[in-house]
Design a protein that fits this description.
- This protein has 361 residues and is α+β, with helices and mostly antiparallel strands.
- It has 2 domains: 4-229, Rossmann fold, CATH 3.40.50.300; 236-360, Nucleic acid-binding proteins (OB fold (Dihydrolipoamide Acetyltransferase, E2P), Beta Barrel).
- The chain has 8 helices and 20 strands.
- It has helices at 42-50, 92-102, 107-120, 136-148, 166-183, 194-200, 218-223, 228-233, and strands at 4-13, 16-26, 31-35, 57-62, 65-66, 77-81, 154-158, 186-191, 203-208, 211-216, 238-248, 251-256, 260-265, 275-280, 286-288, 298-309, 313-320, 325-331, 346-351, 357-360.
- The strands form 4 sheets. A 6-stranded mixed sheet has the order 6-7-8-3-9-10, with helices on both faces. A 5-stranded antiparallel sheet has the order 13-12-11-14-20.
- Strand 7 (154-158), helix 5 (166-183) and strand 8 form a beta-alpha-beta unit.
- The radius of gyration is 25 Å and the shape is globular.
- It binds adenosine-5'-triphosphate and magnesium ion (MG).
- Residues 13, 16, 18, 36, 38-44, 192 line the site of adenosine-5'-triphosphate.
């Protein structure tokens, strides 16, 4: 039995359908992420799981039993918010102890639990500090410690790292992974950063306009997006209009507007004459001088119109004959601000028949 089941849940605000017949299951011990653009319904869904809001239709079940009608404090589900929501007049230790006191734990239990969770988040040297004496990352760790103090079944995290700078954010990502693994608490993590979701999650649900577009393992979401929305939202991707002109063994021939005739891997639902999109990731495209890739079936020439040095790789933006811009990545093995092609230079982009993904409309 799944730990949590969302069953045909809908939520409307006036005419707006914020959550539209959403169903999925989360297993015990999972690090599960909800991703999607602003306003797609992530927070609305978390609020219904936590009990702060109620679905208009559908059911939410924990261990197979409906949670509807059960008060938030009786659900064994806690939430960590982006804003931390610490009590400013309470010390770190008292902030963490607060929910334990509310549940009527004994002073000895409270002391022991508080010490234990502060060890988990590496804050034992700050027990007597007040929130204003802490950095953003430390405050977030106190909020985390408070949320896990009485070991909930599920921890909901609504963009908990959004206010942190890039470096700290990465560090906290590592800590979240470790904490989740050590405690075995099921995490439902909301982010609009697709990179964060890919890095942290066991499974990801990609949401769009109140619906789940795809629910899958991170590598499947990235490598095998189900439709144009997911391909576009997760990672960088060139999306090229394509019509299926032949289905040939393990491959498709695609007639495209920008790339001419292209060989691509077979897609299960492709039919001759069907219109759709070819999705190509920047790391799938090879970039070189004209004639460099005579052995590859798919080639197109273009002009370098920009490049972006990102340290370990350089991204080249290449404009094709008819104005379409695509990105190609090249790893930098030598130190320094390396780039192999100049702005305005004519280059060839090429890729094997086995990469790229055809998505029908
Ligand atoms: N209480 C409310 N009253 C009216 N509309 C609401 C209410 N709560 C949410 N909405 C609307 O429902 C939609 C989904 O909102 P929600 O907060 O779930 O989005 P989100 O995915 O969390 O976005 P973000 O990434 O910006 O936090 C939005 O269009 C929002 O304006
Ligand atoms: Mg939100």
């Amino acid at each position: 039995m799944p730990l949590l089941e969302i069953r045909k849940v809908s939520r409307r605000f006036g005419d707006l359908v914020a959550i539209d017949q959403v169903s999925f299951e989360i297993e015990a011990g999972e690090f599960f992420s909800l991703v999607g653009t602003s306003g797609c319904g992530k927070t609305s869904l978390l609020r219904m799981i936590s009990g702060l809001d109620t679905p208009d239709e559908g059911d939410i079940l924990l261990d197979g039993k409906s949670l509807l009608g059960i008060a938030p404090e009786d659900r064994s589900i806690h939430t960590v918010f982006q804003s931390y929501a610490l009590f400013p007049h309470l010390s770190v230790a008292d902030n963490v102890a607060f929910p334990l006191q509310m549940r009527g734990k004994t002073p000895a239990t409270i002391r022991a639990r508080t010490q234990e969770v502060l060890e988990h988040v590496a804050l034992t040297d700050k027990v007597d500090h007040f929130p204003h004496q802490l950095s953003g990352g430390q405050r977030q760790r106190v909020a985390l410690a408070r949320a896990i103090a009485d070991l909930p079944r599920i921890l909901l995290l609504d963009e908990p790292l959004a206010a942190l700078d890039a470096k700290l954010r990465e560090q906290m990502q590592m800590e979240l992974i470790r904490l989740q693994r050590d405690l075995g608490i099921t995490f439902v993590f909301v982010t609009h950063s697709q990179a964060e979701a890919l890095a942290l999650s066991h499974r990801i649900a990609v949401m769009n306009r109140g619906r789940v577009e795809q629910l899958d393992l991170p590598e499947r979401i990235y490598g095998f997006p189900k439709n144009k929305f997911v391909a576009d939202f997760i990672g960088h991707c060139a999306l090229v209009e394509a019509t299926v002109s032949a289905v040939d063994g393990a491959y498709l021939n695609l007639e495209t507007r920008h790339l001419g005739l292209v060989r691509a891997p077979l897609a299960a639902d492709a039919r001759v004459g069907q219109r759709g999109w070819l999705a190509l990731r920047p790391e799938q495209l090879k970039i070189g001088h004209a004639g460099a890739f005579a052995d590859l079936p798919n080639r197109v020439s273009g002009k370098v119109c920009d490049f972006l040095y990102i340290g370990d790789v350089t991204t080249y933006i290449v404009e094709l004959g008819d104005g379409l811009r695509v990105e190609a990545l090249l790893a930098n093995s030598a130190p320094g601000r390396v780039h192999f092609f100049e702005e305005g230079e004519i280059v060839e982009l090429a890729w094997p028949a086995g990469v790229g993904r055809y998505l029908h409309e």
